Each structure stands twice: as structure tokens, then as C-alpha cells.
Amino acid sequence: MNTIPTDSKKRKPAAILFVIAAGLYFILNFAVVPMLFVGYRISFVQILYLLCLATVAVGLFLDKIPFPIAGAGFAGLTIISIVHLIDVIRLSSIISHSIIYICLYICFMLGFLAAAAILFIVVFGNEEMKKTAKKLAIIPFVLLLIACIAQALLALLLAGVLAVFLRDLLLLAVHVLILIGTKCAIEAYVCPEGKPKKAVTRADGTAAEAGDGYIGMSKHVLLLLFTFGIWLYIWIWRTTQYTNRAPGEEERNPTKKMLLCMFVPFYSIFWTYKTAQRIDTIAKTRGMSSEIATPCLVLAIFVGIVPPILMQDKINAIALNGNAPAAAPAAEPARDVGESTRAAADGVPEELEKYKRLLDNGVITQEEFEAKKKQLLGL
Fold first, then answer.
1. CB of 147 within 8 A of CB of 111?
2. Cα–Cα distance measured from residue 151 to residue 168, given in angstroms and rounded to the nearest whole number
3. What is the Cα–Cα distance from 357 to 351, expressed in whole angstroms?
4. How far, rounded to the nearest angstrom, does the alpha carbon of residue 138 sit from its chain's CA centroid?
5. Among 340, 332, 341, 375, which Cα is nearest to 355's?
6. What angle do CA 362, 365, 367 make, to 5 degrees?
7. I need a surface site. Which of 22, 47, 66, 260 has the fewest CB within 10 A?
8. Phi first, then psi: what are they for 328, rounded to 5°?
9. Contacts 24+ apart (CB under 8 A), 301-305
10. How do the domains of the chain map onto residue ranges?
11. Distance between CA atoms of 229 and 87, rounded to whole angstroms?
12. 32: which DSSP letter?
């Protein structure tokens, strides 16, 4: 069978997120809600919603097929959102905050529809259509993000009723998992070779290509402030993945760390400290001074929103520094030519070994290693 080209580093985490979302939705509707509400009955639509989440997960796990099963799952979620929207409109006179519910289901409907359309276009469309789909890949994320914000607002408005508040809070967790999973799934399909690096400008006005992990600070701060914590968990996932390149450190699972930060009290403080340490390590391998781990730990305890800003600012500095011209070596006293040649030759194996370790740890690229090797060997 033909293989649909995808980025497995994005597709597989997306599949895991949809599995977790389906499991949490099952627990919510088949265990928690029946205990909270006497006489509650599970509807056929809820069963279909669960099956559609599972379909998306299966489609993302299986890529050796010429048909996007995940796209069919998103299409099913679109239809179910339409059914929910019709029910809310029909019963709007007796449903409190019905306008917010209508907004929520409209955003879900359009977001899932856009996701399904993008996946089908990427698989079956021509090159021009694929380019258009790539440009529109942000639309499902924006729509689903608005839906999550609406769900969070409903939870706050109905916080006076404990059972309803707990239900909406768990439902919000399901929707956040779907939001992140959808974003990763679409990126896996539209950018099968990974997202291209962005062009940025250094402080001195020279052009540079930002390394992995770069996020504009204005965008980062605004998302932290106005997404009710949703962007924070997306950022935790991304930053965990980025800091896996720290030399000498054990690789961490981004999805696992994100979920621990979401559901384990105070774990985010521990994650902040350990991740800031890794950022310090990465910075030092690039010749930069960095000591943000301790300040981030203290700030995480008292002012939780500040450490993500400090950490992202340092990541951005690393991204730019990694492409900046290397500083000229300090001038050394003149020595005999023969002495200099022997000293250089003696130090070549150690230098090559050092740069090979940097290559193995992902700090430098293969091209950079080859260039340095030729320089040291005088080729």
C-alpha cells in the first residue's frame, strides 16, 4: 500500500493525544456524569463522538494507507457538532447562556470541518491546492481555541453548581487535548518534512534564520495572557521537545510532561526548574552565559506567568546565536612555524572528538561538523 507522507514526530503524539481525549471523554460520560446527575442517560450521539475521536486516533497511528482515516474522523466530529448546534438552537429558550453554547458549537463545527478539508486536500489535491491548504492550516487551531475559551467561560459562569462545574472542567480538558492533537495532526500532514525555520532579524539589523524553538515574544506573551492557560500547556509540550537536545540529559516525553503539568499539583514548578536548567546547558554549548534556572524556580512559586517569558526569551536568544557569525579568536603570541604546526596537529583529535560529541547531541548539524573537520585538518 502507498504511504501518505507525514511527519511522524508530530503525527504519533497527535494520535496519543486523541487516545487520551477519547479515554477521558469515556470516563466523563460513562462514569463521572452518571454519578453527578441522577437519571442521566448516555445518548447515541455521545457514543458516536467517542467513536469519531477513536477514528482520528487510529487514522493518525496508521499512515500506510492511501486514504486519510483521520480526515474521516474529523468529518464525523463535524456532523456531531452540527447535531449539538441544532439541539442548542432548538432549546435556546430554556438553556442558560445559550449564546455561548451556540458560539462554542459553531467554532467546533467549522474547526473540525477545516481540519477534515485540509487532510483530504493534502492527500488528494494537486500541488496548488496543497499550497493553499498549508497557508490555511492555522484556521482549525484558531477556531478550536475559541471553542475552548468558550468552554472555559461556561465553566466559570456555572461554577456555582459544583456538579456542572466539574463536568465542564473535565470537558474543557478533553477539548484542550483535541485542540493540541488537531494542531499536531495538521502540521504532520501539511509539513511532512517538518516546519521550515523562520527568518528573523538580529539586534544589529542583520538577517538570520531562527533555530528550532523560536517564538515571537509579543505573540508568546499575548497567548499566555489571553488563552486561559491553553497556550501554556502547548508551550510546555514544545519546550520539553526542544530541550531534549540538551547534551548529557535523558530524553523526556513531551506529551507525558504536559499531562503531568496539567493534572499533578505543583509539578509545573519542578518542570520549570529542570527545563530551565536544560536551557542553561544548551546556551552554554553555544558560548552564551545563562543562569535562569534558580530565578525561574523562585518566580514559578510566586509569579507563575513570568518563567515562561524568561525561558522563551532565552530560547530565542539561543536560536539567533546559533546562526550568528563566530567570534574571531583572540590573537596569540607569534611562535615558530614548526612549533605551531606540531601544537595544532596534537590538538586536532581532541577538537574533532569534542565537535563529534556536539554533533551526536544535536547541538550542531552534520554540515557544520564537516566544515569544522575540514578546517582542523587543513583540507
1. yes
2. 7
3. 10
4. 13
5. 375
6. 160
7. 66
8. -70, 135
9. 301/269, 304/268, 305/224, 305/225
10. 8-190, 202-321, 346-377
11. 30
12. I
CA–CA dist 150, 361 (Å, integer): 42
Indicate the burial class of 249 (C-beta count within 10 angstroms; 0-12, 13-18, 19 or more): middle
CA atoms of 242 and 213, how far apart (whole Å) = 6
- For residue 208, the cross-strand partners are 200
pLDDT of residue 3: 66
The angle at the Cα of 87, spanning 23 to 55, to the nearest 5 degrees, equals 30
Q: Which of 268, 175, 237, 163 is nearest to 10 (CA)?
A: 237
Short-list 18, 365, 368, 350, CA closest to 212: 365
What ranges make up the beta strands (E) of the chain?
199-201, 207-209
Burial bucket for residue 122 (CB in 10 Å: 0-12, 13-18, 19+) = buried
255: amino acid identity, one letter? T
DSSP label of 360? H
Residue 245 DSSP label:
G
Three-class secondary structure of residue 266 per DSSP: coil
Length of the chain as a residue count: 379
* pLDDT tens per residue across span 254-279: 889 988 998 899 999 999 999 999 99
- pLDDT of res. 308: 94
Interval 123-159: pLDDT, tens: 888 888 888 888 888 899 899 999 999 998 888 888 7
CA angle 26, 154, 163 (to 5 degrees): 55
Is residue 291 within 8 Å of 276, Cβ to Cβ?
no
Please write the tens of the pLDDT for every residue from 80-96.
999 999 999 998 888 88
Burial class (CB in 10 A: 0-12, 13-18, 19+), 22: buried
Place of cell 530541550: 243
> Is the Cβ–Cβ distance between 145 and 179 less than 8 Å?
yes
| Residues in Cβ contact with 318 at an 8 Å cutoff, skipping those fewer than 6 apart | 211, 213, 279, 282, 283, 286, 288
- Angle between helix axes 306-321 and 267-285 (nearest 10 degrees) is 20
